[in-house]
Amino acid sequence: MDTDVFTLKLVESLDQMTKYQPIEIDENILSNMRFEEVFIQDYSHLNPKYPKRFFKNLVPDVAI
Length: 64
Prior knowledge:
64 residues
């Protein structure tokens, strides 16, 4: 079974988590993800200080 790095980090964090915490990954992991899996939240047009945020769609059957 070929497991991606994001899934490995997710499983690792679930073992240590006592309350919800977002999983943070670096640019390298993000760039290796399929673009269909990534949702980008970009509000920089409202305020240039807002950073872009990236989310992984964990339910690929549901289009975002």
